[in-house]
Task: structure prediction
Amino acid sequence: MIEAPVRIPPAAILPESRLSGPERFRRWRQRNRQAIEAWVLMLPLLLYFSLFFLFPFVSSFLISFVKWAGMGPPPVWVGLTNYVRWLTDLYYLQAFANTALFAVAILLLQTSIAILVALMLNTKVWGRGFYRTAWFIPGLTAASVMANIVGLFITPGTGIFSLMLTKLGLPDVIFYMRPDLMRMVIIVYSVWRGVGGGVILYLAALQSIHPEFYEAARVDGANRVQLLRYITVPLLAPMTLFVLVTGIIGTAQIFEAVQFLTKGGPQNQTNVLMFAIYQEAFSNGSLGMASSGAILLGLLLLVSSIINIRVMTKGRIQD
Result:
């Protein structure tokens, strides 16, 4: 009797324990093909995020607990000492207060002006494209150039304001010796430079509102004030939330105006967190203090953004 030949099952139905290494890898790759492709596509972004965000954050967090100049002697562990100095020293507390003052003032003025300008530019006015560009140009101009323009106005003796006061027979005003005036200068400079972005955003939001809303309201007898109050403002709420959150992050990191105009003076009355962090890192050679200040600033921005989102979305019906 002739025995039938033994048939060897194909590799596809063999248990993985009996497969060779290359065959196991081929099966695994087929099962996880979509996941592998997804990770390959995300790899450049993950590398970028890790190199420029994750690694600097972790490094800064660790350095915030040491006393280190970046070079020379090795780091010395000091624990929470750097954070305690930021929260108890009057010099740094003044920087916190100035940052809050500038952030609130700049944000309120910048947002209000942006809404008003966007409402005007949303109407049919001659040269509307030119006005849009004119409002946005300061945001594209280098901060040093803008600061030099401001300096032309407030320079003692030869500035435009000084010359105007001399012509009027009035005593000259030295802006750099007046903390109140220099605070106003920084606020005006920051609003002038940043309002263009808000104008563009609000203008885009206004143009996305369907005209049918206004037509239906006019049929019911609504006037312009009622159209603004009951239609325009509520429909601008999502954009307002975006502008406020990004505005808090931007205004709390004010730096160029202080760097180019006041250097934190007079009497530390215009010093802000970003400039204090900059001084600690590059003038005082204290990377530990600079890193701890950056961590505190990040926490403040996070908390303020969360509070702002909660307040703006309170009472809104969720989809």
Summary: The chain has two domains: 1-46, 83-313. Strands lie at 66-67, 76-77. The first helix runs from residue 21 to 31.
